[in-house]
Design goal:
Elements lengths: L1 H20 L2 H24 L9 H19 L3 H23 L5 H26 L4 H26 L3 E3 L3 E5 H22 L5 H29 L14 H21 L2
Antiparallel strand pairs: 1-2
């Protein structure tokens, strides 16, 4: 399992570095739209698997489309367009629920899950666009990804070798308190390393505060996605990434870390 994780990471990291630093805002936005669509597909696979009759495909297509437009409007910095698209998302889903209600009265629940999916994935992912488009944006977004990724790695290995006390077994039986602490130590340590390599203007306390806060948000994001999988009896959101599961398994921490990082960067740091 571990060698698959490292091999997948070694393949994806150069692509990620290129997209963040050399791809430009348009290519980066297209990349996030692709990731958003895949993650929405995995999310719907989790939350709609027990619905009978099957949820029609136009629900999913509507979410893919509006999610892509949300990320696009965030890339162009249009707050008005962003709010408008979100309103259209809700209105369209409400219309689809009326079509379904005469077939099955679970229509409101289906609609709520669909709108939440758009909020949970493309909306939260849009904060990565906002970070990338700001001052020193590519460096900042890579900083966030760096902190989250190493925190996840630190939590995995600390939990594997030293984990004794369960963190939250009702949601994720394998996660331990020791693993969570190891992840936060890794967040802070690799955050400081990044500071000395690229962000000398940041003070040590500010860098540690940023890394730990983003790390805590990332762990919450990881646990939150595990709720859905646990409730549906699914181990991984997908199998597209060997050793990692699905794309949603890989970016669940980033979905929570990105908005927290954006708020810290813009209003505190």
């Amino acid at each position: 399992m571990h060698w698959k994780r490292w091999l997948t990471a070694l393949v994806l990291i150069p692509l990620l570095i290129f997209l963040v630093f050399k791809g430009g805002p348009v290519l980066f936005a297209i990349f996030l739209i692709l990731i958003s669509t895949i993650c929405l597909f995995e999310y719907f696979r989790i939350v709609y698997q027990d619905h009978n009759p099957v949820v029609p495909g136009y629900y999913l297509l509507w979410a893919y489309f509006t999610g892509a437009v949300l990320i696009s409007t965030a890339a162009y910095g249009s707050l008005t367009g962003f709010i408008t698209i979100f309103a259209i998302t809700v209105l369209g889903t409400a219309f689809f629920s009326l079509l379904r209600f005469k077939v099955n009265q679970d229509a409101p629940i289906v609609a709520i899950k669909q709108v939440f999916g758009v909020v949970y994935i493309p909306f939260l992912l849009s904060f990565a666009i906002l970070i990338h488009g700001g001052r020193n944006g590519p460096l900042w977004i890579f900083f966030v990804i760096w902190v989250v990724a190493w925190g996840d790695t630190g939590a995995l290995y600390t939990g594997t070798y030293f984990g004794r006390h369960k963190l939250y077994p009702a949601v994720s039986p394998k996660k331990t308190i020791e693993g969570a602490i190891g992840g936060l130590i890794s967040n802070a340590g690799f955050g400081l390393l990044f500071k000395y390599l690229f962000f000398n203007q940041l003070s040590v306390p500010v860098c540690v505060f940023f890394a730990l806060t983003v790390g805590i948000a990332g762990q919450l994001g990881d646990l939150f996605e595990s709720e859905f999988k646990r409730a549906s009896g699914i181990k991984d959101s997908g199998r597209i990434l060997p050793g990692h599961g699905g794309f949603l398994d890989r970016i669940d921490a980033l979905l929570f870390a990105a908005p927290v990082a954006y708020l810290l960067k813009e209003f505190i740091i």
